[in-house]
Amino acid sequence: MFSLLKKKFFSSGHAQPALPEAPPATEAAPPAPAEAPPTPAPAAEAPRQSWLNRLRNGLRKTGSTLTSVFTGTQIDETLYDELEAALLMADTGTQATQYLLDDLRRRVKAAKATAPAEVKGLLADAIAELLQPLQKPLVIGRPDGGPTVLMVAGVNGAGKTTTIGKLTWHLSHSGASVLLAAADTFRAAAREQLGVWADRNTVDIISQDGGDPAAVSFDAVNAGRARGRDVVIVDTAGRLPTQLHLMEELKKIKRVVQKADASAPHEVLLVIDGNTGQNALAQVKAFDAALTLTGLVVTKLDGTAKGGVLAAIAMWAREQRRAVPVYFIGVGEQLEDLQTFDAREFAAALLS
Ligand SMILES: Nc1nc2c(ncn2[C@@H]2O[C@H](COP(=O)(O)OP(=O)(O)OP(=O)(O)O)[C@@H](O)[C@H]2O)c(=O)[nH]1
């Protein structure tokens, strides 16, 4: 699931996350490690095939309109027109739609395709190729042994905290020790929610009632280094890009994290709700302008009719001439519903 640099991560079996040291005043102590583990079977044991089935099911609403285009008998302008409408309906956006149609026409010509069913296969190839640059593993571990700091942002309800909880679980079971920072200092429920994930995973959490989110993040990075943690994950409060003061707060968190560790944050991740389609793309642009994102997590691809947004994001990243990988995608609320993004699997699931 991750590309883990440290040797110890490759050892067989699951390293137990280390117990935290005596907690400082601001820290909520994790419960006894005897606490029952969160949910079902470990991801490593969850067959990729079952995940692919869930992905296919999740994308059915998006895919059914697209695949219906290929039920005719001829490859003609009507087919391309219908495909254009279907791609736009799937929130692929005008640029990516035009790009895919042009690319598809070239592929159809080169393959001398004569049946719509062949065109469907060629479209899957075109989508997979467009999405390919989004596929990249998240690298955890630093040559100097310091913690990899992940800063996580997004609008309210996008799935940040849940994603962090799932990632923590996956990381812990890969042998990485994690420390969480509850940088939403204003909403008690948000801290509690992160605290539940910390409890479930038996990892320590730096949290503060009120106060400055940047200060909590600063403390967490220092604590992560002092305690030899492999990963520090900073959960920030949800915000809209239009809330300029809150976007300034995010920038400040990033700056202050940098003060605690000049090479951090090593990843600035935006969590987006795949169900929000083009709106999610607008969020990517706005958060990127404020923070320079290094990666994305797309949640709630279960039951969405807007799965084409990944193509729109790929097109945007292409224009930026920058890799902004989609490290993970989510198709549900269970631990194993968050998995790495694979361009070809996604394209195949979309058109299955
Ligand atoms: N169906 C589905 N639900 C999800 C997925 N990921 C997260 N959720 C749910 O989305 C809801 C919001 O998730 P949170 O993790 O609380 O979102 P957040 O971004 O931290 O929200 P704020 O703290 O308000 O900013 C929760 O009910 C999650 O269980 C997913 O992939 N699919």
UniProtKB/TrEMBL annotation:
GO cellular component: cytoplasm; plasma membrane
Purpose: Involved in targeting and insertion of nascent membrane proteins into the cytoplasmic membrane. Acts as a receptor for the complex formed by the signal recognition particle (SRP) and the ribosome-nascent chain (RNC). Interaction with SRP-RNC leads to the transfer of the RNC complex to the Sec translocase for insertion into the membrane, the hydrolysis of GTP by both Ffh and FtsY, and the dissociation of the SRP-FtsY complex into the individual components.
Name of the gene: ftsY
Quaternary context: Part of the signal recognition particle protein translocation system, which is composed of SRP and FtsY. SRP is a ribonucleoprotein composed of Ffh and a 4.5S RNA molecule.
Domain SRP54-type proteins GTP-binding: 325-338
Sorted UniProt keywords: Cell membrane, Cytoplasm, GTP-binding, Hydrolase, Membrane, Nucleotide-binding, Receptor
UniProt enzyme class: hydrolase
Gene Ontology terms, MF aspect: GTP binding; GTPase activity; signal recognition particle binding
Binding positions for GTP per the UniProt entry: 154-161, 235-239, 299-302
SMART domains, sorted: AAA, SRP54, SRP54_N
Species assigned in the record: Tepidicella xavieri
Membrane-topology annotation of the record: Peripheral membrane protein
Record family assignment: Belongs to the GTP-binding SRP family. FtsY subfamily.
EC numbers, comma separated: 3.6.5.4
Catalytic activity as recorded in UniProt: GTP + H2O = GDP + phosphate + H(+)
Gene3D superfamilies linked: P-loop containing nucleotide triphosphate hydrolases (3.40.50.300), Signal recognition particle SRP54, nucleotide-binding domain (1.20.120.140)
Designated name of the protein: Signal recognition particle receptor FtsY
InterPro entries for the chain: AAA+_ATPase, P-loop_NTPase, Signal_recog_particl_SRP54_hlx, SR_rcpt_FtsY, SRP/SRP_N, SRP54_GTPase_dom, SRP54_N_sf
Region (Disordered): 13-47
Broad class of the protein's primary localization: membrane
Biased composition (Pro residues): 30-41
Pfam families in UniProt: SRP54 (PF00448), SRP54_N (PF02881)
Gene Ontology BP annotations: SRP-dependent cotranslational protein targeting to membrane
Intracellular or extracellular location(s): Cell membrane; Cytoplasm
